[in-house]
Task: inverse folding
C-alpha cells in the first residue's frame, strides 16, 4: 500500500484501474482487503481508490475521539493529495456511514453514492449504549471478543468467516473502540436522502444479520431513482459473498 499524510495522520491506500474515480470504503471492524475480489471486476472502468480508514489496517491510529465527519474529511483530503476533485463514493456498512458524511459535507464532490450492506438511520438509544459498552470491553480485554461475536454475524459463508476472523484479530483495540463511538454518534441521514440528485446504488443481502435488508428498501423508497440489488441468501459481506453481483451494481453508477 501507499501512504499519504492527510489531516496530520498517515492514511494507507491502494489504487487500481483507470477511468472515473471510485472510492471504496470498508466497514467495521475490517480494512481495505474486503474489496479485493471486486477490484478486478471494476478496474477496467474506474480509477479505484481503496483506503484503510483511520485506526484500521495500515493507517495511523488516532487516540482521541473522532466522528464520521472526521473520517470523511480524511477521504476528502486523500483525494486532494491525489489531485482528484470529484468521485463516486461507495461504502460498506460503517464505510457507508462515512460515505453519507462525505455527501453531507462535500456534496459538490460527489458523482454518485453506493451503499453496500449499510443504512441511513442513526442509532437508537439502546444501540448507542451497546456500542459504548462494547468499546469499553474492547479496551479492557482486546479484540478477541469481537472476533468471536462478529464473525458469524458478518456472513454465513465459512470461507469468508475464516477470512474476517483473521482480519478482525489483526485490528488494534483503540481503533475499534473509537470507531464504535463514532458510529454511535453519527447523524441520521434519512431526511436528506430525497435531496440526492446523483446516481445511487444499493447492494444488500437478504440474510444480513447486522443490518436487515429493510434498511436498504427504506433508502430506495426515499430515493426514487436509486437502484437496489437484493442478494438472496447473502449476509453482511456482499462484496466477498457475491462479488460479481456487487461489482455489477456498482458499475451502474456510471
Result:
Amino acid at each position: 500500500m501507499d501512504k499519504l499524510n492527510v489531516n496530520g495522520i498517515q492514511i494507507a491506500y491502494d489504487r487500481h484501474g483507470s477511468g472515473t474515480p471510485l472510492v471504496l470504503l470498508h466497514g467495521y471492524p475490517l480494512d481495505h482487503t474486503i474489496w479485493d475480489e471486486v477490484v478486478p471486476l471494476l478496474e477496467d472502468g474506474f480509477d479505484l481508490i481503496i483506503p484503510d480508514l483511520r485506526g484500521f489496517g495500515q493507517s495511523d491510529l488516532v487516540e482521541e475521539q473522532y466522528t464520521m465527519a472526521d473520517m470523511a474529511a480524511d477521504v476528502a483530503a486523500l483525494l486532494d493529495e491525489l489531485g482528484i476533485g470529484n468521485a463516486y463514493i461507495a461504502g460498506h456498512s460503517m464505510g457507508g456511514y462515512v460515505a453519507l458524511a462525505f455527501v453531507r459535507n462535500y456534496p459538490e464532490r460527489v458523482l454518485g453514492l453506493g451503499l453496500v450492506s449499510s443504512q441511513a438511520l442513526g442509532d437508537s438509544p439502546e444501540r448507542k449504549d451497546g456500542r459504548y459498552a462494547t468499546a469499553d470491553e474492547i479496551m479492557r480485554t482486546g479484540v478477541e471478543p469481537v472476533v468471536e461475536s462478529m464473525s458469524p454475524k458478518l456472513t454465513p459463508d465459512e470461507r469468508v468467516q475464516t477470512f474476517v476472523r483473521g482480519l478482525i484479530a489483526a485490528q488494534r483495540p483503540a481503533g475499534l473502540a473509537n470507531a464504535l463511538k463514532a458510529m454511535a454518534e453519527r447523524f441520521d441521514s434519512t431526511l436528506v436522502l430525497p435531496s440526492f440528485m446523483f446516481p445511487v446504488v444499493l447492494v444488500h443481502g437478504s440474510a444480513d444479520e447486522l443490518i436487515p435488508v429493510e434498511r436498504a428498501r427504506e433508502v430506495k423508497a426515499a430515493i426514487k431513482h436509486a437502484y437496489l440489488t437484493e442478494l438472496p441468501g447473502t449476509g453482511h459481506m456482499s462484496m466477498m459473498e457475491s462479488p460479481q453481483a456487487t461489482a455489477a451494481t456498482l458499475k451502474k453508477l456510471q
